[in-house]
Amino acid sequence: MIRSTLVVAFAYGALAALAGCSDDPRAGYTLKNQYRQDVKTVAVKMFQRSRDVYRRDIEFDLTEALVKRIEQDTPYKVTTIGRADTELSGTIERIDQHVGSYDPETGRPRDMLLTVTVSFTWKDLRAGRRDVVLVKQEKLKATGDYVTHEPVGEVFFQGGQDVVNRLARQIVEHMEAAW
Q1: Residue 20 pLDDT > 70, yes or no?
Q2: What is the pLDDT of residues 77-90, one digit of tens each?
Q3: Cα(66)–Cα(166) distance, rounded to whole angstroms?
Q4: How far apart are the C-alpha atoms of 95 and 87, rounded to whole Å?
Q5: What is the architecture, at CATH level 2, of domain 35-174?
Q6: Cβ-proximal residues to 137 (8 Å cutoff; 6+ apart), any chain
Q7: Given pLDDT bands bounded at 50, 70 and 90, which one contains residue 154?
């Protein structure tokens, strides 16, 4: 008796949740795909470092994380520039690192806060729409932290990887179709 009541309650709850959804994105909720239907492929160019960014290989890490996130979270396929409908490119503008807190006994940093700032452009490469900018975002930031204090003793690479993954997620979120 209790089991059947729970099943009925769950069914009503699911129907109530779906009743608020609409195929019209202007309604506020939708079950449709949130990505552009006219784009099938994306070429992801290696992100560049501005002349003020001295951390080596962060551009490789960001580009790799971005390719993985596009393949995982979107209907787009990542391909070469000659075969792509669109191109995503960007620049790592800044990397800021600050001490989050100090160990009161030693005075050494306990954890570090890391902020990476990027700018990117997603443009159309198809005939008749060449170089139409689909998305342009300046100074997108992601922040993370890592523990430098023993026994954990993380280094920049570990904290940086978390921030790079957050940036990749944010960039892909900007690739969603406009409502």
Answers
A1: no
A2: 999 999 999 999 99
A3: 10
A4: 24
A5: 3-Layer(aba) Sandwich (3.40)
A6: 119, 120, 121, 171, 174
A7: low
